[in-house]
Give the backbone structure.
Amino acid sequence: MAIVFFTIATLVFFSSCQTKHEMTSSVTDIKRTPQVYADSITTIVSDSGIIRYRIIAPDWYVYEKADTPYWDFPNGLRFERFDENYKVDAEIECDRAVYYSKLDLWKLNDNVEATNLSKEEFYTNELYWDQKGERVYSDSAITIIQKERKILGVGFESNQTFSRYSIRQPKGTIPIEE
């Protein structure tokens, strides 16, 4: 009886070891496997103890082992800036975003919409935000809606608050005062 029990225990032990080996070998490339995943993200960013920004995203994947580490927001994100009364005074929203953590560079894609402090609206399909250089830029088509005019163009560069910007290849009617 003891021999039968020992034989069964040995078979269970070796078969469970085999199963564990198969599970660990299923991860083939650590560079393309997220190290962290979170859903329904809302995070607050403060500066000197004062809440300044909020980031909202349905999904967040972190790939820290990639050659160029990055965070992936495959279902988009919303970035809000708060005034001193905690009201949203500027915002950016997109359907997909990637943040390259070592480069401090955001790449926003698909239905990118931004509103600056002057309530001007910016629409494009691709936008880069270089946090180190404190600039925003794009080579894609862009539409800017101001109070009294609509400006179209291809290519765009701005400071990170969208308050001073230039448009390459501008189009549209721009009224000029005499």
Residues 1-23 have pLDDT under 50 and may be disordered. The longest strand covers residues 50-63.
